[in-house]
Amino acid sequence: MDTNIVGVGVGITDRFRSVVEEKVSRIEHLAPRAQGLEVKVTHRSYRNGRMEDDTVELTLDGKGPVVRAEATDVDKFAALDLAVDKISEQVRRAKDKRVDARNHPRGAKFEKGTGELSGIDVEPASVDVLRAVATGSVPVQADVAEEEDYCPVVIRQKEFEAEWMTVEEAVDRMELVGHDFFLFIDARTDHPSVVYRRKGWDYGVIELTTQASPMVSVAS
To answer: I want to staple 202 with a disulfide (CB 3.0 to 4.6 A). Which of 6, 76, 101, 198 is the partner?
Structure first.
């Protein structure tokens, strides 16, 4: 598996590279079909340099969905250990789900008469959540490489290609990237939707009523 290590605001030492190579063998054992691992280390200073930390982001590429994990600590080696633990758990959980799916086929079922969704543990978003999304009451700030007064509650804006999938597939993808939500286009309705993590292993789903138009390329 190819490994690429990138440092942002910090130099990558030979010692750190050797530790990464040791960790790679653990990930390869869990994901033998993975083709590449990107390790990004970002150093940040807060309050005029009086506080510092390092964030390690891991991105695992290969056949199938991309798997991501990140962790932050005052020491980049500790952050690396935490990130490796996270991505290993995500890969292991995905493997367990595939085995369970083979042994117990499952799938979401939509009842046209009642409008209920069964076969997956999701719950419609509450009125408060829908109102917050509709009114845009949550402030959004563009992603900036260097933020002088970085605050973890600031939402950074990113753009991704739209993907059509089922609610169940979206939940699985959310688990793989280690996020608390995942945006997608519902293949059943063509509506922009988001699944999100609730308490425990419960999930919720928000669906917009506007249909998304598939991307069409026109040859010149």
So the answer is: 198
